[in-house]
Design brief:
By secondary structure, the protein is an alpha+beta fold. The chain folds into 3 domains: 1-27, no CATH class; 31-84 and 142-160, SH3 type barrels, CATH 2.30.30; 89-137. The chain has 3 helices and 6 strands. A 6-stranded antiparallel sheet has the order 4-3-2-1-5-6, with no helix packed on it. Mean pLDDT is 77; it is low at 19-29.
Length: 160
């Protein structure tokens, strides 16, 4: 291979582009007090509680000022931690575009055929995608990372 071989340059570019997210993902599963956690225990999903503490016997979870839950560590089958939230704007734009196209074509079909239908669909897609993106931006969802159970330790720390 030559030093300026396009395949080599493309491969190196890909590695350099993927390296920062991969390095960030290695630290993304660290668990600290105050983190939002989700647990899978036999028959139930304990969803979106705040980690208040823990030891080798179990985890202390809270939700609000009054709700407290103690979960024995030995029954936990899956442990996930929320690192950040993300917007649902792209999904909202997609759904809005589809619904906008349907409504646009329906309204245009009452006015004529041919180019009128295409313009109606185009206007409906643009309006629907915009409205869907705005509505979707208001919806936030958690991004969950799995913490291997064998790395959950006393004091709810992740082993290196």
């Amino acid at each position: 291979m030559r030093p300026n071989d396009p395949r080599r340059v493309a491969g190196l570019t890909l590695v350099l582009a993927l390296l920062p997210p991969l390095l960030a993902a290695q630290d993304s599963a660290a668990v600290r007090r105050g983190d939002r956690v989700r647990l899978l225990v036999p028959g139930h999903v304990v969803d979106a509680w705040t980690l208040a503490g823990g030891d080798s016997a179990g985890l202390l979870l809270t939700r609000g000022a009054r709700d407290t839950l103690i979960v024995p560590l030995d029954i936990v089958r899956r442990f996930e931690v929320s690192r950040r939230t993300r917007s649902a704007a792209p999904q909202g734009a997609g759904v809005g575009a589809i619904l906008g196209a349907i409504v646009g074509v329906w309204v245009a079909a009452r006015q004529g055929t041919g180019d009128v239908l295409l313009r109606g669909a185009g206007i409906g897609i643009a309006a629907g995608a915009g409205a869907g993106a705005v509505i979707g931006a208001l919806v936030r969802t958690d991004r969950w990372y799995v913490v291997p159970l064998d790395q959950v330790r006393v004091g709810v720390r992740v082993a290196p």
